[in-house]
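quick one, 234 residues, struct below
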Amino acid sequence: MKYKRILLKLSGEALMGAQQHGIDPQRIKAYAEEIKNLHEMGTEIAIVIGGGNIFRGVSGASEGMDRVQADYMGMLATVINGLALQSALENAEVPTRLQTAIKIEAIAEPFIKRRATRHLEKGRVVIFGSGTGNPFFTTDSAAALRAVEINADVILKGTRVDGIYNADPEKDKEAVKFDALSFDEVLHKGLKVMDTTAFTISQENNLPIIVFDMNTPGNLEKVVKGENVGTRVY
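---
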């Protein structure tokens, strides 16, 4: 097993499945099974999940809403997704803790680095909700920040496409996939991996990022074993 402790970043949109919004119970159940397989291998798993399937702060602000208010709504959306994923994992008999950057004691623990690390050491999956707890920061930034805080070996960014391309593969049939890229190459080529803040945090802390297709069964396990799946940025 190549990576012992991982930070898995999932987009909120990934939970929609074939729906236009909300949470697809079958999709979240499938993700829980993938995560369970990893857990049984002894991998320490932390997860950051987006909220775009419920509410996006940026789009709310573009409709005239106050950006700070809109971002807080987006943070609450990530907590809803975190609760859903926690429930799916516990149904699959995987011990899970949800920690949030904004205090909601009735439903989740506050984020405390030492406590999160202890949960991981004890074999619990830890889900980090509400991003960084600050407006103007994306869940990509939260993923990079939490990964560094818990000393993760890698950030695994689960998406709908099987890696990083020189163009959007869903629109351009001639798009070429990269197997591996350095941080400098990503910047030089102007490729979009994560937002700039997240990318900078990863680069400064030498934390590799692997972008892969989360919707292909078995991919998550292959990535953690070090197989050539997706695109590795190092």
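The chain has a mean pLDDT of 95.
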